[in-house]
Design a protein that fits this description.
The protein has about 375 residues and is α+β, with helices and mostly antiparallel strands. It contains 12 helices and 10 strands. The strands form 2 sheets. Strands 1, 2, 3, 4, 5, 6 and 7 form a 7-stranded antiparallel β-sheet that branches. A 3-stranded antiparallel β-sheet has the order 8-9-10, with no helix packed on it.
Length: about 375
C-alpha cells in the first residue's frame, strides 16, 4: 500500500471489489437444521424408539386405546422439547440483534462510520478509547494505545501496543482501553484470530450429557429385559401350555407394552423444561434441555483467566461522600445503562464531620 493510499484510505470502488472477493466481515455460524428436522430429532432417544415400536405393535394387535395413549405421550414429549429449544434459539437471536457493531474508517480521505460487516482488508480503522475492534489490523499510528484482550487471551491487564514488529497487531473482539491510533485491516471474518477460535468451537464434537448417557443405558436395559420376558412368556404359553399361537403372541406383546415406562421421557422433559425456565428468569439462556442436568451434576469448576469468563468490566455500585451515600445501578461500561441516586444521608463515618466542612451539591 503506497503512502497516498495509506493516508486517504481505500476508494469505494476498491472496497466494493474486496468485499466481493473476501466476503462480509462476519463469523460463519453453522446453520440450524430446518424446523421439521429439529422436531423429528426429538424421536431419536432409545426410550422413545421403544415406545414407537410398542405403538405399532399395539395397533397391529388391535389395542387401539393403549396405542393412542402412548402415541400422545410420545408426541407431547417431543413437542415440549422442541418448543423449549425453539424459544431458546429465538432468545439467542434476539440478543444478537441488540448488537449493531460499527467501525470508523477512512475512505477516499473522509472519515466515516460503517457497519463492521462491510470492513475489508486494506481499510484504515480509526481507534479511540472504548472502541471495539472489529477486525485484525496492523497499527500505523498509535498514541499511548492500550488494548484489552481479555476476550481473546484471558489476560485482564490491558496490553500496550507499539509500532514495532510483533506488538503492532490488534485483533477482532478486543477493545481499546486507552489512547488512540490508526490501523490497516489485514484479516476479516473467519480469517481473523477470533474467527479461527469460532471455527474450533463449532467443529468440536458434541458429547452427550450424563443424563442422556444414563437414559440410553436405561433404554437398552428395558428393551433387553422386555424382549427376554416376552420371549419366555411366549415360549411357555405356546410350547409348554400349548395355547393357541395368536393368544400367546398377543399376551406376550401386551406384557412388553406394559413393561415400557411410557411416562418416563415426558416426565424428564417436563422437569428439564421447568429448570430451563428458572434459569431464564436468572438471565441464563440454555439452548439444550440436557444442559440443565449437566450444570446440576457439576461439582467443581476449575478456571483460570477471569477475563475469559466475564466481560472484564468493573462497575461502581456505591459512592460514599461525607454524609451522602450514593447508589449506582447498571452494569458494564454502557453510559446509557443505570442511574445515580441518593441511598441515604447522615452517615456515621469513621471520622467526625466538622461543622465547617463544606457540603457539596450534587445533581442527580
Amino acid at each position: 500500500m503506497n503512502r497516498e493510499t495509506q493516508e486517504n484510505g481505500l476508494s469505494h470502488a476498491t472496497a466494493a471489489q474486496r468485499l466481493e472477493k473476501y466476503g462480509l466481515n462476519e463469523l460463519v455460524i453453522k446453520r440450524a437444521s430446518p424446523l421439521i428436522f429439529q422436531f423429528f430429532a426429538e424421536f431419536k432417544d432409545i426410550l422413545v424408539i421403544i415406545l414407537l415400536v410398542a405403538v405399532v405393535i399395539a395397533f397391529t394387535t388391535g389395542d387401539t386405546s393403549d396405542a393412542l395413549i402412548i402415541l400422545f405421550i410420545v408426541i407431547l414429549n417431543a413437542a415440549i422439547g422442541f418448543i423449549q429449544k425453539y424459544k431458546a434459539e429465538k432468545a439467542v437471536e434476539a440478543l444478537k440483534k441488540l448488537i449493531s457493531p460499527k467501525a470508523r474508517v477512512v475512505r477516499e480521505g473522509i472519515e466515516t462510520e460503517i457497519e463492521a460487516k462491510y470492513l475489508v482488508p486494506g481499510d484504515m480503522l480509526i481507534l479511540a478509547e472504548g472502541d471495539h475492534i472489529n477486525a485484525d489490523a496492523r497499527l500505523i499510528e498509535e498514541y499511548e494505545l492500550t488494548v484489552s484482550e481479555a476476550v481473546l487471551t484471558g489476560e485482564s491487564t490491558p496490553i500496550k501496543k507499539y509500532l514495532s514488529e510483533h506488538k503492532n497487531t490488534v485483533f477482532m473482539g478486543t477493545m481499546v482501553a486507552s489512547g488512540k491510533g490508526k490501523a490497516i485491516v489485514i484479516h476479516t471474518g473467519m480469517n481473523t484470530m477470533f474467527g479461527k477460535i469460532a471455527h474450533l468451537t463449532t467443529s468440536t464434537k458434541k458429547d452427550k450429557s450424563p443424563l442422556e448417557k444414563e437414559l440410553k443405558k436405561i433404554g437398552v436395559f428395558v428393551g433387553e429385559i422386555t424382549l427376554a420376558i416376552s420371549a419366555i412368556l411366549f415360549a411357555l404359553g405356546y410350547f409348554w401350555q400349548e395355547k393357541p399361537f395368536a393368544e400367546t403372541f398377543l399376551f406376550a406383546i401386551a406384557v412388553a407394552v406394559a413393561a415400557v415406562p411410557e411416562g418416563l421421557p415426558a416426565t424428564i422433559t417436563v422437569a428439564l423444561a421447568l429448570g430451563v425456565q428458572r434459569l431464564a428468569k436468572k438471565n441464563a439462556i440454555s439452548k439444550q434441555l440436557s444442559s440443565v442436568e449437566t450444570l446440576g451434576a457439576t461439582t467443581v469448576i476449575c478456571s483460570d483467566k477471569t477475563g475469559t469468563l466475564t466481560k472484564n468490566e468493573m462497575t461502581v455500585r456505591e459512592i460514599l461522600i461525607n454524609e451522602y451515600d450514593f447508589e449506582v445501578t447498571g452494569a458494564g461500561y454502557n453510559p446509557n445503562d443505570g442511574d445515580l441516586r441518593i441511598k441515604k444521608t447522615d452517615l456515621h463515618l469513621s471520622r467526625k464531620t466538622k461543622p465547617e466542612d463544606p457540603i457539596h451539591d450534587f445533581k442527580i
